[in-house]
Amino acid sequence: MATIDPNARWGADGRPDYAGLPSFAALPYTESGEGLAGADVAIVGAPMDELVSDRPGTRYGPRAIRQASASTGRHLDAGIDAFESLRVVDFGDAAVIPADPVASHAAIERIVGEVVDAGAIPLVLGGDHSIAEPDIRACAQRHGPLGLIHFDAHTDTARELWGAELSHGTPMYRLVEQGHVAGERYAQIGLRGYWPGEKEFAWQRERGITELRMREVVERGIADVLTEAIDAVGPGPAFASIDIDVLDPAFAPGTGTPEPGGMTTADLLWACRELAGRLELVGADVVEVLPSASGTDVTAVVGARIAHELLTGIALRRAGRGGA
Prior knowledge:
Blueprint: E1 41-46, H1 61-68, H2 82-85, E2 88-93, H3 101-117, E3 121-126, H4 132-143, E4 146-151, H5 171-177, E5 181-191, H6 198-206, E6 210-213, H7 214-220, H8 222-233, E7 237-243, H9 265-278, E8 280-287, H10 291-294, H11 298-318
Parallel strand pairs: 1-2, 1-3, 3-8, 4-5, 4-7, 5-6, 7-8
């Protein structure tokens, strides 16, 4: 039997996953600007889903991802512990306002801007994909127009859906039109299904957006497809936006608009680590995790692992060991 000190408390990396309050990976939690001092990366929650077009519930995504996040440790393949190499903090959630998506977007933009102003990389947990507009805009306003790698079954480049310009299907259109994302440095991976239509794809071609459909991932392999996407983004500040529905619903059933025929978890996790090691990431988000829809925690676990792989790739790049 181990000797127990009745006065002992767990440190950030010393408690079981199921014990203590759920910050991401048991990281130090702060809601003050002072807590960001010296941070390399800050986890931020964006718990809103007022702008979905199908099943709601992704407002519970940030909490579920935190609860599912594994404690720290050395990545078996990469040979590095992101939490030893980087100072990462959990900066809490944006002060979203239910039923007021405009105010919620403003709150998300403020908190992400605070992270960037502190010199840290924001890693945002959504929430529906509309949250990409304020979080990418906050980064672009400080770094200039960004390159973007976007994993998704859908392009999210509609001008409007059912007459609404604010939607989880419109953020990428708005970001490109606002000048925050450079179309010629924007690559989409995993597109499939029956939406959008020719109008949206014609708009994309005019702006030089690289479309890499799921068929190409299957036929060419993820390594080849990701290299094309990274080459399209090129040098300079970049953002990664990962919609969990890029995965086949067999791997991530908990999402608002599941689309059969998607990526495997293994391919997506590798790709996230690889792109974070090779690109100058200034921010990232993981969106559309709908924990209540799956009946299990599998989708939240995958969301947490995506975030962990992004952190591992950032750590590899900082250590001079990024991908080729």
